[in-house]
Specification:
- The complex is a heterodimer of chains A (242) and B (520).
- With 242 residues, chain A is of the alpha/beta class.
- Chain A has helices at 9-13, 15-18, 42-58, 74-80, 104-115, 136-149, and strands at 31-36, 67-73, 82-83, 96-101, 120-128, 153-158, 169-179, 190-200, 206-212, 217-221.
- In chain A, strands 4-2-5-6-1-7-8-9-10 form a 9-stranded mixed beta sheet, sandwiched between helices.
- In chain A, helix 5 (104-115) runs parallel beside helix 6 (136-149).
- The longest helix of chain A has 17 residues, at 42-58.
- Chain A starts with 8 loop residues before the first helix and ends in a 21-residue tail after the last strand.
- Chain B has a 6-stranded antiparallel β-barrel with strand order 15-16-17-18-19-20. A 5-stranded mixed beta sheet of chain B has the order 5-6-1-7-8. A 4-stranded antiparallel beta sheet of chain B has the order 9-12-10-11, with helices on one face.
- The longest helix of chain B is centred in the middle third of the chain and has 22 residues, at 269-290.
- In chain B, helix 12 (269-290) crosses helix 13 and helix 13 packs parallel to helix 15.
- Chain B is extended, with a radius of gyration of 35 Å.
- Classes of the chains: A alpha/beta (242), B alpha+beta (520).
- At the A-B interface, helix 3, helix 4, strand 3, strand 4 and helix 5 of A face helix 15, strand 13, strand 15, strand 17 and strand 18 of B.
Chain lengths: 242, 520
């Protein structure tokens, strides 16, 4: 381990200097995991917003459009359906390559193969529940593959317990009441999501209300009472050295 | 140039027997027959049998009454066709391309090549001579159009030549109408009309003499016949070259094939992997030489005990990368039962596409470890099945579940109209819309509350209805329209639900409600 990467004494005293709060302009993590209920489309929406922001940041100045691999296991397809291009964000609509995997094991294989491919812009995975293949080792493999080949990975976990995982950012997302539109006050407006970043490498945990207007990701921090540096929940900790 | 093998079936039989005409087994009356639903029918007869009264097309029983000592052998139509294909390829020694003229002829394009043989007459003599050397009795003719050459070969004088400066109708006027390659029922009609020769038909068709009304009658008679072989007027135009007649040339497809015969039968997987690697390397070298890449590969393994095991591999894009091919086949070889051993392995590229040599990326390739998109899709479809990796493309339909088609990922996207921007659509669509129970103030009004998967959702905001009418041109008449609503419940979850039908549309009872999509 390099000496420079170790925390200095001053940083240990003030956690905030080393672990700044996450903000929408921050460099996107290569492996993000999003936990949401399967009956709530908000998890998907927040994932697409985060993925869209990451792609906008990474593809600035790039001319060609690269494809996007979307892997779903069978249970995820049954619970939440398949992607429907007319409803996807404009930038992602024509780039989807869909993989319907029978089991979580096949889905993990497809995710890893996708990460190894240099022609993909990003990889999206949907896995329902906590299958035993989706272990800490499996998620560590995905993280390593994503970082080695520099392909961002977003995994949506439907109805899953917060198990151990090595994702660089782990969010828990649910829908939030939308902003009423300007003209028809009774209609659903621009979607917004309540997102809790409960584990992240390099960022302090926090809660935000996310919004996406198609051009930029907006985040509004929900102030939580500060209890100082208490030990966070054990089940939300990852085993790796942060 | 048309080559007509007059006695192809008999010639082939003689070749198989190894006898010359009139000697050996051919000296006695002999017929070649095929089995039909009404008993054996004569396909070909030799000279002796013809003299006794047997004729092609006769039933065998009829011929036997004329000549009881008739000898009988089975004919081989499939073999004849295969022979004809080889003959068509062989006939390309007289011209750049040739076409089959089933069942017993070949057409060769000899435009501007006759001078290589010393003129057209010498060319025809050469053809006759070389075919006779192969034991084939042929009639040949040269004409500016395929139809005229065919007519002259079948019904004209021996080795007829129709030069471009001749008037084809004048030269062909004496030939029977059968020379127009017509169906038997059309020939019957023409015979009943009294049109026996091409000249008669031409006179009527041109409206010469006292038959001015005949032309319209003839045109009316064959107005609905669009097939060339059923319409003598089209055939006549093809004969003189007024109407084009496309021919399908015969080409010899060469399938890239590599194989290994093994000294000792192999029974173990690691040995098979070694052989596979060798074969893939051979295939790569072969395809590279041709400038091609494989889209489909067939691997066949011959076992000692007479079994043949085959494995097929479909590739998303043309490739000739040996390591990639090996890796994909490795997943397919897991369930191979070698039995007493495999003694021969063969790899064929049954579908190859052009793949020119490309310049490798000197710097980036060394650094980037990743695979290409095509290789990634190949690996996924080998492991998950071919139908698992697909790409959604839009299809012209208003019904949401029909407006999407799934196609292989690397195929080009079909043209479609840009979707309308003011339609809000959900990000996810359920495979099958799920029935929900809805509480509403009035049956055709907004939903107030609904229950889906055992959970009650209070509708806080709603937008709609967006009415999508059934597609009357493909659905049954009692299909109901759909009123789509975008709803948001108290917690901000958004859904796309619809009411199937209206309460008073007379197409069933009270309308049902369905949830079809989840909005992001």
């Amino acid at each position: 381990m390099e000496l420079a990467s170790l925390p200095r004494a001053a940083e240990l005293v003030h956690a905030g200097t080393r672990n700044p709060r996450w903000h929408p302009g921050a460099a996107p993590a290569l492996h993000s995991e999003i936990f949401a209920a399967s009956s709530d489309g908000g998890g998907m929406g927040a994932l697409l917003a985060l993925a869209g922001a990451a792609l906008r940041q990474r593809e600035r100045g790039r001319v060609e459009e690269r494809a996007l691999l979307w892997v779903q296991d069978k249970a995820a397809i049954r619970l939440s359906g398949r992607p429907y291009p007319p409803g996807l964000p404009q930038a992602l609509r024509h780039r989807v390559i869909h993989v319907a995997a029978d089991s979580a094991k096949d889905a993990l294989f497809a995710l890893e193969e996708g990460l190894r491919c240099r022609d993909l812009a990003c990889v999206i995975g949907e896995i329902a529940g906590n299958p035993k293949e989706m272990s800490f080792t499996a998620s560590r493999r995905l993280t390593l593959a994503a970082e080695r080949h520099d392909v961002p990975l977003f995994v949506l976990r439907h109805d899953a317990r917060l198990d151990l995982g090595s994702a660089r950012m782990r969010w828990q997302v649910r829908s939030a009441p939308s902003v009423p539109p300007l003209w028809d006050r009774g209609a659903p407006g621009h979607p917004s999501w309540h997102a809790e970043l409960f584990r992240a490498r390099g960022h302090a945990p926090g809660e935000w209300t996310l919004r996406d207007d198609g051009h930029a990701l907006g985040a509004e921090r929900i102030a939580a009472p500060d209890h100082g540096d208490l030990v966070p929940d054990a089940d939300a900790r990852s085993l790796e050295t942060g | 140039m048309a080559i007509w093998c007059r006695t192809l079936t008999l010639d082939r039989w003689r070749q198989a027997e190894g006898c010359t005409p009139g000697t050996g087994a051919d000296a006695a009356p002999l017929v070649l027959t095929i089995d039909t639903a009404h008993g054996p029918r004569i396909e070909a007869v030799n000279a002796a049998a013809l003299a006794e009264g047997a004729a092609p097309g006769m039933m065998l029983a009829d011929a036997r009454t004329l000549c009881p000592r008739l000898d009988l052998r089975p004919a081989d139509p499939a073999g004849d066709l295969a022979f004809l294909e080889r003959l068509a390829l062989w006939a390309q020694c007289w011209g750049p391309w040739s076409a089959l003229d089933a069942p017993d002829g070949v057409l060769v394009d000899v435009s501007a090549v006759a001078h290589l043989f010393g003129g057209e007459a010498r060319l025809l003599a050469d053809v006759t001579e070389r075919c006779a050397a192969r034991g084939l009795t042929v009639r040949v003719a040269i004409a500016p159009t395929a139809g005229a050459a065919w007519a002259l070969a079948h019904h004209g004088p021996e080795r007829a030549i129709l030069a471009p400066e001749h008037d084809p109708l004048a030269r062909l006027a004496d030939l029977p109408v059968a020379a127009l390659r017509l169906d038997p029922d059309v020939l019957l009609v023409l015979r009943r009309l009294g049109l026996k020769r091409i000249g008669d038909l031409v006179r009527v068709e041109s409206g010469a003499g006292d038959r001015a009304g005949g032309r319209d009658a003839l045109r009316r008679r064959f107005r609905t016949r669009h097939a060339a072989s059923a319409n003598p007027l089209i055939r006549l135009d093809q004969l003189i070259g007024h109407v084009p007649e496309p021919l399908l040339p015969v080409t010899m497809p060469e399938v890239p094939l590599v194989q290994r015969r093994l000294m000792e039968p192999i029974r173990h997987r690691d040995l098979l992997d070694t052989v596979m690697a060798d074969l893939a390397a051979d295939m790569e070298r072969l395809l590279e030489g041709w400038g091609e890449g494989a889209r489909r590969l067939d691997l066949a393994m011959w076992r000692v005990d007479g079994e043949v095991l085959t494995r097929r591999l479909d590739l998303a894009a043309a490739t000739r990368d040996a390591a990639h091919i090996c890796r994909l086949f490795a997943a397919k070889l897991d369930d191979i039962d070698a039995g007493f051993g495999i003694e021969m392995v063969r790899l064929t590229a049954s579908w190859a596409q052009s793949l020119p040599l490309g310049q490798a990326d000197l710097e980036a390739a060394a650094e980037e470890h990743g695979t290409s998109l095509a290789a990634c899709i190949d690996r996924l479809s080998v492991r998950l099945g071919a139908g698992a990796v697909r790409r959604p493309v839009l299809h012209p339909s208003h019904i949401p579940e029909r407006s999407l088609r799934w196609q292989p990922p690397l195929e080009p996207e079909p043209l479609h109209q840009e979707e309308l921007r003011f339609h809000a659509r959900p990000a996810k669509l359920l495979d099958k819309a799920e029935a929900i129970s809805v509480l509403y103030a009035s049956p055709d009004g907004y939903p107030r509350r609904f229950r889906w998967r055992g959970e009650v959702h209070e509708v806080a905001r709603v937008e709609g209805p967006e009415r999508i009418a059934p597609e009357w041109w493909r659905e049954r008449g009692n299909a109901r329209l759909r009123d789509y609503y975008r709803v948001e419940d108290g917690e901000g979850r958004r859904y796309w639900i619809y009411r199937s039908g209206l309460p008073d549309d007379g197409r069933g009872g009270m309308p049902d409600w369905f949830l079809q999509g989840l909005c992001g």
